[in-house]
Every structure is written in structure tokens, then in C-alpha cells.
Amino acid sequence: MAEIRRTRWNASGRRRAVRGLAAAVFVAGILAVVAAEAADPPSPWLRRTAPAITVRVRNLVLAHKTARAQNDAASTPQAAAEKGYDGGFRFCRIRFRTSPEGDGAGWYVDYPRADENLSLRISQLTKFPVTTVGEGDPVHIVLRLTDAELFQCPFVMMTEPGGAEFDADEAKALGEYLRKGGFLWADDFWGSHAWEWWSQQIGKALPSNEYPIVDVPLDHPMFHTLFDVKEIPQIPNIGLWESSHITSERGADSPQAYARAIFDRKGHLMVFMTFDTDFGDSFEREGEAQDYFLKFSVPAYEIASDVLIYAFTH
């Protein structure tokens, strides 16, 4: 295994029904968490950084309101995406080739509901301006690494990256995007083979001798921007949980979840990796089982809120 440095559907009727089913449980669960957080005094780090974060988020909101007019006439998320970037948050998913030599089901796993649900929850949990159209449908797009629109996405996500394969042009584009301030979250890849394959592919974009992969300790400021994260949950796909109530999808080869990252030379976070866990399924399937939602979706949204706030304000 690669060495890790230890650094301490206007199918809308159905979709709205699922949102409505999850909403009551979601609000109850999150309000309980927020109440618990409010009972504790803020950390010294939060007291020092909260004013700066507030200003940066306020600037994002103002920029979004200024630019939003261009999307007002759009009737669907796709139409809004085609009109161009308006300064608001939109979920950008990377489409990639899947190699038979790797271990991954494909770029489309959890698409599109994970993209939509995460966008909706971020709009509820934070003051980030999320671009929506119609009756609040969030704008989300799928793009390739070589698409020019990549540089209009401050945040991109890859699911099942353990099977992704980058050619020279894709690796070059991804490396340029990340070094210029872009942010990638890679999620839902399991076991040693998937890890080795992904390490090789991301190494094409960010050579490991210059940009090592490190474990992110729980006391890192990223995990304390809005919620105080106390653990990285191992989240199974909902089918495994409902059938067996176990969390490891690769048995002994995926004993626990890991949060890993790549930082630039100045310490800025470029790539966040949730390995041996499946955040995407907790977003996509949030409305299908109450116990799955409470045990996995709620902490996943807390972590996602922290990660995105940190990424957009640092």
C-alpha cells in the first residue's frame, strides 16, 4: 500500500416527495445537533477565525446576488448551468473513464440525487448562496476534466475514484485546476487495490514527491468550522446496511474510514478524500430509511458543511 504520511427527477413529483419525507427527520436531527453545539463555548480557533469566515461568506452572497439575474429566465437546472456560472454554489461532478484494472463502478454512482440533496442541505445548514431554478431545484453539472467549464467550478466531486483513469491531458488539466485554487472531493472507494490505483492516478496530476497524501487529524480546523466533528463515520451503501447492518464493504480490507488530503506548499487544501466510506450514498439515499438517515446522513452533512465552508474560505 502506498505510504501515507501521518500528520496528525422533474421526475419532480417523486423527488419532492422524498425531500418531504426526509425533511421532518432531517430538521429534528440537525436541530438536536445544533442545540448540543450551542451549549458548548466556541473553541479559541473558532473565535479567532469566525469574523474572517463571516466576511468571506458575505462576499460570496453579494457576488451571487449580483450575478443571479442571468439565470432568472432558466426553467431547469441544466438550462441554468448552460447560461454560465453565476457565483453561487453548484455541485460539479467529474465524468471520467473507468479502467478494468482499478476498482470502481463509475463516475455516475449516486448521480443525480446525491448532487441535488447535498446542494439543498448546504443551503439549509449554511449561508452559502446555492444556485437554484424553478421551485428551488439546485443547479448541478457533469463535466470532464478537459472541459473549459472546469475552471468555473470552485468545487468538484468524484465518486468511485478507485477505478478512475486519467490520460495525460486530463491529469494536466486537473493539476492546473487544483494548483490554481480548485477543490476536489474524492469519495466512495474501498480496499487496498482501489487505494493503490487512485494514488497512481492522482499522482499523475499532483506528483507525490511534491504533494504527498496525508491523513487529516480530527483536530484540524477544517473539522470545526460549523460543527465539531468527532469521528469520520464508515458509511456503507444502504443495501448493505439494511441487509446486514455492517459498515465495511470490503471486510478486513476496509476496517475503518479514513479522511486524507493533499495540500499545496502553503498548506491550502486541494484534495479531500473519504476512503473506505460512502458519503455519496448517505446523500443520495437520505429519504429511504430513517435509521440510515440518522446514523449516517446527519453526520455526513455535518462533515460536508465543514469541508465546504473551509474549502471556500481558505
Short description:
The chain has 314 residues and is of the alpha/beta class. It has helices at residues 12-39, 44-67, 77-82, 113-125, 168-179, 191-205, 238-244, 279-284, 290-313; strands spanning 5-6, 91-94, 97-98, 132-133, 137-138, 140-143, 155-159, 164-165, 183-187, 213-215, 258-263, 269-275. The longest helix has 28 residues, at 12-39.
Task: Describe this entry's structure for a reader.
With 314 residues, the chain is α/β, with parallel strands linked by helices. The chain has a single domain (5-313), classed as Rossmann fold, CATH 3.40.50.12140. Helices cover 43% and strands 14% of the residues. It has an eight-stranded mixed sheet, sandwiched between helices. β4 (132-133) and β5 form a beta hairpin. α1 (12-39) packs across α9 and α5 (168-179) crosses α6 (191-205).
Known CATH architecture: 3-Layer(aba) Sandwich
> Per the principal axes of the C-alpha atoms, what is the gross shape?
globular
Tell me the name of the CATH class.
Alpha Beta
How would you characterize the largest beta sheet?
A: 8 strands, mixed
Largest sheet, spatial ordering of strands: 1-10-11-12-9-7-2-6
Radius of gyration: 19 Å
For the record, what is the CATH homologous superfamily label? Domain of unknown function DUF4159
Distance between the termini: 31 Å
**Estimated structural class:** alpha/beta
Weakly predicted, low-confidence segments = 5-55, 59-73
Number of domain modules: 1
CATH fold title: Rossmann fold
Tell me the strand percentage band: 5-15%
Order of helices and strands: EHHHEEHEEEEEHEHEHEEHH
**Number of strand segments:** 12
Mean pLDDT: 82
Number of helices: 9
Kindly state the percentage of residues in helix. Answer: 40-55%
